[in-house]
Amino acid sequence: MKKKILVIDDDPVIVTYLEKLFNDNGYETCAAHDGIEAAEVAKQEKPDLITLDLQMPAEWGPRFYRKLIKNKEFKDIPVIVVSGIDGDHAIKNAAAFIRKPFDPDELLKIVKNAIG
């Protein structure tokens, strides 16, 4: 069974790019454009890993993350922060922090290390 990655970013170009990158490398994907939508998608899709932008409208990445880890079902899902702002302190248990613009090979390597 394919592993599933939830891509959370308010930039549709980034979402499309990441979904294509992950799909081309054998992962299933689902997406959300802010933290509120992401909470719903996470419940429905039960992802194996999440990529999370920090700066988004409606609900910032760190607030979504704080809610996520309160839920037993989701607290062990690895989260890779992919952001243009320097905020690695915002998600202290993140599996990795990658600055935009990022190297796709580096991101894939981190994903493979996290979920295979």
Tell me what the structure shows.
By secondary structure, the protein is α/β, with parallel strands linked by helices. It has one domain (4-115): 3-Layer(aba) Sandwich (Rossmann fold). Helices cover 40% and strands 20% of the residues. The protein contains four helices and five strands. It has helices at residues 12-24, 35-45, 61-70, 104-115, and strands spanning 4-8, 28-32, 49-52, 79-83, 96-99. Strands 2-1-3-4-5 form a five-stranded parallel β-sheet, with helices on both faces. Helix 2 runs parallel beside helix 3 (61-70). The chain is globular and about 30 Å long. The protein starts with a strand and ends with a helix. The model has no long low-confidence stretch (mean pLDDT 93).
The coarse silhouette is globular
Q: Gyration radius, to the nearest Å?
A: 13 Å
Work out the number of β strands. 5
Query: According to CATH, what is the topology?
Result: Rossmann fold
Detail the poorly predicted runs.
none
Percent strand equals 15-25%
- How many helical elements? 4
CATH arch. level architecture: 3-Layer(aba) Sandwich
What is the share of helical residues? 25-40%
CATH superfamily: Response regulator
